[in-house]
Amino acid sequence: MRLENARILLTGAGGGLGHELARQLSGHGASVLLAGRDVGRLEALRDSLGTRVAMVAADLTRTEGVALTARAARDFGVNVLINNAGASAFGLLETQPWPTVEQVLTTSLEAPIHLTHALLPWLKAQPQAAIVNVGSAFGSVPFAGFAAYSAAKAGLRAFSQALRRELADTLVAVVHIAPRAIDTPMNSDVVVALNRALKSQSDSAASVASEIVAALVRNERELHIGFPERFFAWLNGFAPSLIDRGVAGKLPIVKLHAKSQHSV
Questions:
Q1: CATH number, domain at 64?
Q2: Could you confirm whether 257 is annotated as catalytic?
Q3: Which of 90, 138, 149, 232 is catalytic?
Q4: What is the pLDDT of residues 32-88, one digit of tens each?
Q5: What is the pTM of this model?
Q6: Structurally, how many domains does the chain consist of?
Q7: Angle (CA) 99 102 103, round 5°
Q8: Is the backbone peptide bond immediately before 252 cis, with ω within 30 degrees of 0?
């Protein structure tokens, strides 16, 4: 895709990855409609990026927020939707309050499906269009302590693949991107400590944004960012029991950090 011809709706634009995506997409000549809930962050980002950038403030977990964002996207002439907004929560499922679980599922799975549903007729009418769903390595390698988040991201990956097959006879491309851990403010201190204890590698928001932009330019449809996570995603599909055993060995560390979270 030629980004100078792209008019992009970017959700979660106020977050760490969203900020970098907006900056890099705009730098490649794309027009970007920033979507998020924090008006101040959106305004500051819009003002820093120039005249090809607009914004819409809305809560995508609410029906009226989806409708408002979809109207703004049509008015902007969007031909690319990037579902980047998401929510995560670390902890053992049995000790997590249900509203926390519900927020993760609603923000990371239901909201992107809802917005895609609202914009699909519009996108199908464009000469060229794309839907980009930003998932997670945990969608392919579900991990202890992130049950709800893993479920949401696995659902988003399945949604992406099913929709791609459903739209095979159209000009709408469906792209699924699965980054590994990203250094953003969304990670709590406990999650940062957990990643350190597990020796899990993470990437900067700028480097992940660069990978996503490159995938759009190359017209890729599936991308797992990072090794060995890419290998583990393949292995989990081929022999999940091997991943079960590997994660079981890390479970004491996960439980220790989950317990420390409640004492903070």
A1: 3.40.50.720
A2: no
A3: 149
A4: 999 999 999 999 999 999 889 999 999 999 999 999 999 999 999 999 999 999 998
A5: 0.88
A6: 1
A7: 85
A8: no
